[in-house]
Amino acid sequence: MEKRQLIEERRELLRQIRELTPEEQAQFDALTAKVDDIDARLAALEEAAAPAQDQTPAGTRRLTRDSVGPLEIRNMTEVLNDSDFLKSFLRAGTFKERAGDRQAIEARGFSYGQKEIEFRAQSKGTASAGGYTVPTGFLAQVSDTLKNVAPIRSVAQVITTDSGEDLKFPTCDDTSNNGRILSEGSQNTSTDLTFGEITLKAFKYSSDLVVVSSELLNDTGIDLSAYLARQLGNRIGRLQGSHFISGNGTTQPQGLVTAASTTSAASASAIAVSDLINLIAAVDPAYITGNNSVRWVMHPTIWYSLRKLNDSSGRALLGDSAEGADLMLLGYPVVLDSNMDSTIAASKKSVIFGAMDQYLIRDVSGLVVKRDDSLRFDYDQSCFVCYSRMDAKVLQAGAFRALVH
Question: What does pTM read for this prediction?
Answer without folding.
Answer: 0.63
